[in-house]
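Page 42, continued from yesterday. The earlier attempt failed because a stray header line got pasted into the input along with the sequence. Redoing it now with the clean sequence only.
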Amino acid sequence: MVEMRPFELIEPRSLQEAIAALRDEGARPMSGGTALMLMMKAGVLRPTRLVSLRRLGLEGIQANGSLRVGAMTTLRALEKSEAVRKGWPAITKTLRTLSNVRVRNVATVGGALAHGDPHMDLPPLLAALGARVTIAGPKAERTLPVEEIYAGYLETNLKSGELITRVDIPSLGKKRAAYLKCTTRSADDWPAVGVAVVLGEEDRIFVSAATDRPTRLASVNEVDKLNIEGDLHGSAAYKKQLLKVYLKRAMDEARNAGH
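This time it went through. Structure tokens are written below.
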């Protein structure tokens, strides 16, 4: 294991202080810290400053037609929310097999979205649900559809000093949603493929883990056009076959949702 480089830890008490602290070269935000610490231990990241976001008041869940989730809301809090279970049951179901409960107790929604790893479960589902993130930065606040956060494997379109502050998810209404993943080991392992489907007037299908970012399909017939990438969880050819199977299963599950 690579020895971690010494770093400064600061805990700003306002969003403005946090943004200012993050503009220094070598600074990284820290929400739950679950993925960040693993990457630091592996030597993938070597920040000189960690900026904790836990004192910024960015947690909370508000359901009033649409769903608003603060970036520092833990995955466990989202999983246990009765409002989420009733209005967006696919989110609750997805979270139950997202890593393990120890991780969900500390990992946050904002961290899960900002990490940029295509094996994460929430980004493809939230993208399919039409969710948008609000991003605060040195100059102004902006909003993006979830899928537009990502630029490639472990790459995002977040700029220096920018932070995700919340995610807004529209009402599901009469639409039906499902997320399925195929893991090569335990049910809570990283997926070899992930498929999110929302069926309605406009069907929205997103795939992940087989691609370098959550990727939208215009139809189930477009799998052969995808640039599928192999990794430790399976070869590109294997993942292509998995996708075809899991797309059908996810479509069937979405159609039967609520029945």
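Notes: The mean pLDDT is 92.
Reminder to self: strip header lines before submitting.
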